[in-house]
TrEMBL record:
The keyword Mitochondrion applies. It is found in: Mitochondrion inner membrane. Coiled coil: none annotated. Keywords: Membrane, Mitochondrion, Mitochondrion inner membrane, Transit peptide. Belongs to the COA8 family. The keyword Mitochondrion applies. It is a peripheral membrane protein. This is Apoptogenic protein 1, mitochondrial. GO terms for cellular component: mitochondrial inner membrane. It comes from Batillaria attramentaria. InterPro entries: COA8.
Amino acid sequence: MTSPTGKIFQQLLMLRYQGVGWSLSVRMASSTPKAKEEKLKIEAEPPKLGTNNWIGPPDPVSNIRPIKFQVHREETHAERMFRQKQAETIQWNQDFWHKHNSKFFKEKEEFVNNLKEIKGVKTVSPEELSQFYRSFLNENRKAHLQYNKEWYKRNISLLWPALQVAVIQAFRRMRESRNKSVKGS
């Protein structure tokens, strides 16, 4: 809504994972009206060191949410390697779906435009679109199978490092809680 002064209020939402649950922050901000092209952006930058990963809004093409991994101040070699391997896997996933979805949207637009031109209509029926969907899936079947195989391989390879990191973090929490109880005595 526009106020008498010509400013609008926006709600800025921030969602972060906090180890055992999600945290949602809402901030009201007053701003002047902006062009429709400008999307809501999270303005906060995560701290350089911390314990919580930040998850951003989905990419408009790939639909993959970017993750800003936090670096613990006492990060071990195993934790760093796991974090880097996770980031590589997410980037690989992002790249695949960005390329795939771009190709899909381009080919779909070409199909719709060609069909409209041939038939001389303004819209394409769902039945006609289903022909495109079927042919697109059939043409890309091999790529999807290769993607699934690689996805499983990458995620299974993360299991052992994830277990190592979980043990390291459990010992760290025990050590920190013991240090707090010793200081409190």
